[in-house]
Design a protein that fits this description.
- The chain has about 400 residues and is an alpha/beta fold.
- The chain has two domains: about 150 residues, Aspartate Aminotransferase, domain 1 (Alpha-Beta Complex); about 230 residues, Aspartate Aminotransferase, domain 2 (3-Layer(aba) Sandwich).
- About 40% of the residues lie in helices and about 20% in strands.
- The protein has 14 helices and 17 strands.
- Strands 4-12-11-10-7-5-6 form a seven-stranded mixed beta sheet, with helices on both faces. The chain has a four-stranded mixed beta sheet with strand order 1-2-3-15.
- α3 runs antiparallel to α11 and α12 packs parallel to α14.
- The radius of gyration is 21 Å and the shape is globular.
- The protein starts with a helix and ends with a helix.
- The protein binds pyridoxal-5'-phosphate.
- Pyridoxal-5'-phosphate (PLP) binds next to α5.
Length: about 400
Amino acid sequence: MNLNEIIEMDKKYYMNTFGNRTPVCFEYGKGIDLWDTEGRKYRDFFSGIAVNALGYSHPKLVNAIKEQAEKLMHCSSLYYIEQQAHLAKVLVENSCADRVFFANSGAEANEGAIKLARIYFKKKGMPEKYGVITLRNSFHGRTLATLAATGQEKYHKPYMPLTPGFSSVPINDLEALEEAVDESTCAVMLEPVQGESGVYPATLEYIKGVRDLCDKKGILLIFDEVQCGLGRTGKLFGYQHFDVEPDIFTLAKALGGGFPIGALCAKAHTAAAFEPGDHGSTFGGNPLACAAGLAVMDTLLNDGLVENAERVGNYFIGKLKALAGKHPILSEVRGKGLMIGVQLSEDRAVEIKEKCFREGYLIGSVGGNILRILPPLIVTEQDIDGMVDVLEGAITE
Ligand SMILES: *Cc1c(COP(=O)(O)O)cnc(C)c1O
């Protein structure tokens, strides 16, 4: 089928939640490159929204999925699953968590985190503690609870009344958070580096202050690391930049390298609140998803991808800052590692993104004035030089 036929079929049969998509359909990929149905090549600096951390067709991931698919894809968590236990072990051994539960997406992992925080206090005999405080401009998912947790009105409006128990405060404002915490609060939930709203990192001082506040008030701290976790920021987990540990954190996006899987990770004292029957998932943690997760974790940990994200990310941010020095339209470069936001002083983000696309480079945009850049963690300095040249062409054209 050619592109126009695909678009026509989509418009006729698929729900129109994505509007007019970028007019391209990809057929296959290798490394950081994608090829479309017309045979045209693109360099990917968006990773399917921070999912394809290993790039495309990574042999370790492809082989793990192939081999597992031939043996056993699904059997239900009513039975013991070796890959599930093994992936949980790898996550526990490399993080501050003691126990893991697998879901199928970021939103679902966050739902699990919110449920765990609530049940933790129910079982302590404090059922009045159910409120979760999140941050403005956060993004926690599209389910009814996670969209209520998301601090962006545009996601709330069509779905009022919202799931009760959520409120949000501005990022990096400890006083506002202190004022918001009351007797009904069970947890603070935040992204150490906010992604979807345009890449806003929390400050070191703020995160340390939030941890201290949660300790003082006896409430739980949840980090949504669905996007910033797993090497994206140049450390395996985002919380490692801040020298604090959350009680609960969630993962998804990169965990399966393109195969859907999410994880709810928690300290032992918190995780113990989930007892048999309290939570579950039909698909979550099935052998195939966990085999993919194991291959991704093995590659991240043993092929130096986290170190690459840090080194190449610093190089990238340095080059973008130098570009901003030459072109005042780039008013700020934000981010950590390979999670980068470029603030524009004019509403030209969509036009610049489209120009890059025409040159064969994929990036993202937020609203009219932010570029969002999330390359696979295998990207090299040379790849970045090419991207920055194209970006410079696009802004000066
Ligand atoms: C993408 C994202 C989610 C939602 O993940 P889904 O897999 O789309 O449900 C939640 N939190 C953060 C920080 C995200 O970036």
